[in-house]
Amino acid sequence: MISADVTIQAQFYDLDPMQVVWHGNYARYLEQARCALLDRIGYNYPEMAESGFMWPIVDMQLKYVRPIRFNQTVRVTASLVEYENRLRIDYRLHDAATGELLTKARTTQLAVALEDQSLAFESPAVLIEKVRALL
Length: 135
What we know:
The protein is an alpha+beta fold. The protein has helices at residues 26-41, 45-50, 125-134, and strands at residues 3-9, 53-54, 57-64, 73-82, 87-95, 101-109, 112-113.
């Protein structure tokens, strides 16, 4: 499938009182990788809006394997695993130096028409065409 990587470095402001990255900040890391993936496809949020759809996240799952600590450099990989009826993206966060798996995650997004807020049961043709052109 189609994938994209970003590299992030945990900052002091990302930490919780236990000196590890606060769990809520992982959503930001996933978003960075998701946008890199959507850029690769050519269907990031501006293109979604231009096609008449918004794509809210309706489900997000995270499995914290190892903590991310201050100044740690992490490679976040986003991989498209479904696109015909919804966007399902799998993520893997690895320590950039050692390759150690830190976190596994998955998001699911559904297409909602901007005009009337109706749920689309199939992905818009523009997305399907863009994905298939890369496969």
